[in-house]
């Protein structure tokens, strides 16, 4: 039972009318708060397994109405948790405080261990990614470049001693392999580091009897390109350097001379092709002639845009490589128009 002392403050005949209603509402709120506090104390005592006596109830209510802490009612359900300390009211306050401190320290250590365990997979994943990047960098800077340099040196020797007509060599290559009909067949081919390392250590690829036929030497100063171009643009042929797309015209024959090359693998002969500017010069040398082309267009197309390989009634060179780097989503196209032919000998 809750008794209320109706003093002068709550007497409607004596209290001031403007304050009476506010005082009554305040009193009712205090009664409601007191009732809620008693219910909460009863529930907690039942959960903790202790008996609530009048003395203990008065002690708790006195503590709750003091200024030592504040209580906020959120109207949200409270879930039981194993880490809630079990208070023993019959023991001194210091012992209860010590028990709370031990529980808090145990919870902090458990949180730290959980955080460390959750970060462990992330750390392992980052180490694996870093190792893969390191292996790929070693692959591209040492093994791949070393192999293609050896092969380009042998191609140079083969080019210098070759006396065959380019048309005859082209016909021979078209009989032995299928020509490319579209840009989709000139995508990047990522060879494993084990395969390239094996080639390097055994010098398997850099043997004259395995070399493809050579069309000539391609030079673009701004893109740091100075490579021998082989007949054919299949993945196997592009391991040796840029490849002439057999389905297109030969240089100087009044058509479209198309060359494909890797941008990231096998020494990346076309790795800097995006640096060229309109108006710059492309030089292509055969055993008999030197062709100078002026760059007239640089653009990005999709792999399905095969119109760039068609003839346009002029004498041009078309260079193609994957775009952007490390992706075959698009193609970077550089087009040069023939301006000058120099005949050797």
Q: How would you portray this structure in words?
A:
- This protein has 345 residues and is of the alpha+beta class.
- The protein folds into 2 domains: 8-80, no CATH class; 131-343, Sortase, Chain: A.
- Helices cover 39% and strands 18% of the residues.
- The protein is built from 5 helices and 8 strands, in the order H-H-H-H-H-E-E-E-E-E-E-E-E.
- It has an 8-stranded mixed barrel.
- A hairpin with a 6-residue loop joins strand 7 (316-323) and strand 8.
- The N and C termini lie far apart (123 Å).
- Residues 78-94, 189-197 and 199-205 have low confidence and may be disordered.
SSE diagram, text form:
Blueprint (H helix, E strand, L loop, with lengths): L16 H32 L5 H11 L28 H69 L4 H11 L16 H10 L11 E7 L4 E7 L11 E2 L11 E5 L20 E5 L3 E13 L14 E8 L6 E14 L2
Parallel strand pairs: 2-3, 4-7
Antiparallel strand pairs: 1-2, 1-5, 3-4, 5-6, 6-8, 7-8
CATH topology description of the largest domain: Sortase, Chain: A
What's the rounded overall pLDDT mean?
A: 75
Order of helices and strands: HHHHHEEEEEEEE
Please give the CATH architecture of the largest domain. Beta Barrel
* The number of domains: 2
CATH homologous superfamily designation of the largest domain: Sortase
What value does the Rg take, in angstroms?
Answer: 43 Å
List unreliable stretches of 5+ residues.
Answer: 78-94, 189-197, 199-205
Count every beta strand, where a strand is a DSSP E run of 2 or more residues: 8
CATH class of the largest domain: Mainly Beta
Count of helical regions: 5
Strand content: 15-25%
Shape: elongated
- The helical percent reads 25-40%
> How can the largest sheet be summarized?
8 strands, mixed, barrel
Computed structural class: alpha+beta
First-last Cα distance: 123 Å
């Amino acid at each position: 039972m809750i008794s209320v002392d109706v003093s002068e403050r709550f007497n409607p005949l004596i209290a001031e009318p403007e304050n009476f209603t506010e005082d009554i509402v305040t009193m009712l709120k205090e009664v409601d708060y007191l009732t809620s506090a008693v219910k909460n104390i009863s529930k907690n005592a039942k959960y903790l397994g202790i008996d609530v006596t009048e003395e203990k109830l008065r002690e708790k209510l006195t503590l709750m109405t003091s200024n030592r802490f504040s209580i906020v009612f959120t109207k949200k359900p409270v879930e039981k948790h194993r880490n809630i300390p079990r208070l023993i009211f019959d023991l001194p306050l210091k012992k209860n405080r010590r028990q709370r401190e031990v529980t808090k320290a145990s919870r902090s250590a458990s949180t730290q261990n959980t955080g460390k365990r959750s970060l462990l997979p992330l750390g392992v994943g980052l180490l694996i990614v870093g190792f893969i990047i390191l292996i790929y960098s070693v692959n591209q800077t040492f093994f791949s470049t070393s192999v293609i340099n050896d092969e380009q040196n042998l191609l140079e020797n083969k080019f210098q001693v070759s006396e065959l007509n380019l048309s005859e060599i082209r016909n021979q290559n078209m009989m032995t392999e299928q020509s490319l009909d579209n840009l989709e067949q000139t995508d990047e081919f990522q060879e494993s580091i084990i395969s390239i390392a094996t080639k390097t250590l055994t010098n398997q690829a850099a043997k004259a009897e395995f070399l493809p036929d050579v069309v000539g030497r391609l030079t673009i100063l701004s893109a740091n390109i100075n490579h021998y171009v082989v007949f054919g643009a299949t993945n196997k042929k592009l391991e040796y350097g840029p490849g002439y797309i057999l389905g297109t015209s030969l240089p100087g024959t009044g058509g479209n001379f198309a060359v494909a090359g890797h941008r990231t693998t096998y020494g990346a002969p076309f790795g800097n092709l995006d640096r060229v500017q309109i108006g710059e010069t492309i030089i292509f040398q055969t055993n008999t002639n030197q062709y100078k082309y002026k760059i007239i267009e640089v653009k990005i197309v999709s792999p399905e845009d095969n119109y760039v390989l068609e003839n346009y009634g002029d004498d041009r060179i078309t260079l193609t490589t994957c775009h952007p780097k490390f992706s075959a989503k698009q193609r970077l196209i550089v087009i040069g128009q023939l301006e000058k032919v120099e005949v050797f000998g």
